[in-house]
Write a structure and sequence with these properties.
- With about 140 residues, the protein is α+β, with helices and mostly antiparallel strands.
- It folds into two domains: about 70 residues, predicted glycosyltransferase like domains (Thrombin, subunit H); about 45 residues, no CATH class.
- The chain is built from two helices and six strands.
- Strands 1-2-3-6-5-4 form a six-stranded antiparallel beta barrel.
- The longest helix is centred in the C-terminal third of the chain and has 25 residues.
């Protein structure tokens, strides 16, 4: 079983570098216990701190992360960030599950079946929770 699963659908995301600028809208490409990746029009330097806002829930989930890689891709860049702390990583884990549940709900909606978010959550958990990788807690040796 994989330690990290990749998020299969694009989710709205905004990112903002430390300089006071307007948030840049883009899409979450994938998410895992350790971090996430997204598309950007400009390159970001490894080590740079980025504030991200993931468009699930109201209000959206917000956290900070550190750029660990930046790869050119066609006319844009794919940015990988890791989370600053375990609390952010755990919260993003919950966001990851919400994204999967929403994708499940939308999949059924396209087939003509309307599910409330609560119904979709119950069904998704029943069908897929056992396949969702366990939360891995990294030990902190002293």
């Amino acid at each position: 079983m994989r330690q990290y699963i990749r998020h299969p659908a694009a989710v709205p995301l905004k990112y903002q570098c430390q300089q006071p600028t307007d948030p840049n809208p883009t899409e979450l490409l994938d998410i895992s216990q350790g971090g996430l990746s997204f598309s950007a029009e400009e390159a970001l330097a490894p080590g740079q701190i980025v504030q991200v806002s993931i468009g699930v829930g109201d209000p959206p989930f917000e956290t900070k992360g550190q750029v660990v890689w930046c790869h050119p891709h066609d006319d844009h860049f794919i940015i990988g960030i890791r989370f600053d702390n375990q609390e952010s990583a755990f919260a993003v884990r919950m966001v990851e599950q919400i994204c999967h549940i929403e994708q499940y709900r939308q999949q059924w909606e396209r087939q003509g079946r309307d599910l409330t978010p609560e119904e979709a959550a119950r069904e998704w958990i029943e069908l897929h929770a056992q396949d969702f990788p366990a939360w891995i807690v990294e030990s902190n040796p002293k």
